[in-house]
Design goal:
Blueprint: E1 2-5, E2 8-13, E3 24-28, E4 52-54, H1 70-83, E5 89-94, H2 96-107, E6 112-118, H3 128-136, H4 138-151, H5 172-177
Parallel strand pairs: 3-4, 3-5, 5-6
Antiparallel strand pairs: 1-2, 2-4
Length: 178
């Protein structure tokens, strides 16, 4: 679904399939990635909807907005969440999407039941080869990052069983103490 907001047009993946009786996980992909990563996350379908994902400005189906800071990306996502009237969301972010998720949770904590961050740190370092490649072919960079950055684990690090969303430690309670 494409959503026009005051700050630009956003692509929201899996919005049309939401069941109001099930839990919602909103996934924010990292830099150079898009909504396709959300399809790699498989929460229990008896409890959760398919993972919802909003492409950041200039990523996937979302139009560029001139956003240059984590706060501006978070404002974009926040506007989308308010426009589609969602609350009680399990927020999940990867890499730069995790930084956006932290900013969102800090400024809109009542919207979220929980927050999970994957491979998220500050400062966030990105290799120049990846930055150069993504400037020439963003879609190709997203495919590369999805295939090798998340989907394919080296054999030595491969877990014995896949992680389930509930096995991730949620930090909402710690955030409320801040």
């Amino acid at each position: 679904m494409f959503l026009k907001t005051d700050t630009g047009t956003a692509y929201i993946h899996n919005f049309d399939s939401l069941d109001s009786e099930k839990e919602i996980v909103l996934f924010i992909p990292g830099a150079g990635m898009d909504h396709r990563v959300a399809d790699l996350i498989s929460p229990n379908p008896n409890i959760f909807n398919k993972v919802l994902s909003i492409d950041l400005p200039g990523h996937g189906g979302s139009t560029p907005t001139g956003a240059k800071s984590i706060q501006e990306y978070a404002n974009f996502i926040s506007n989308c969440i308010k426009e589609i009237d969602l609350s009680g969301i399990h927020l999940c972010g990867h890499s730069m999407g995790g930084l956006v998720a932290m900013e969102l949770a800090a400024s809109n904590s009542k919207l979220f039941k929980s927050i999970a961050l994957f491979n998220c740190q500050y400062p966030l370092f990105v290799g120049s080869v990846l930055l150069d490649g993504s400037s020439r072919n963003l879609d190709g960079a997203a495919d590369f990052l999805t295939k090798y950055g998340i989907h394919k684990l080296p054999k030595i690090e491969k877990p014995k069983k896949p992680l389930v969303l509930w096995e991730v430690v949620f930090i909402k309670k710690q955030m409320e103490k801040l």
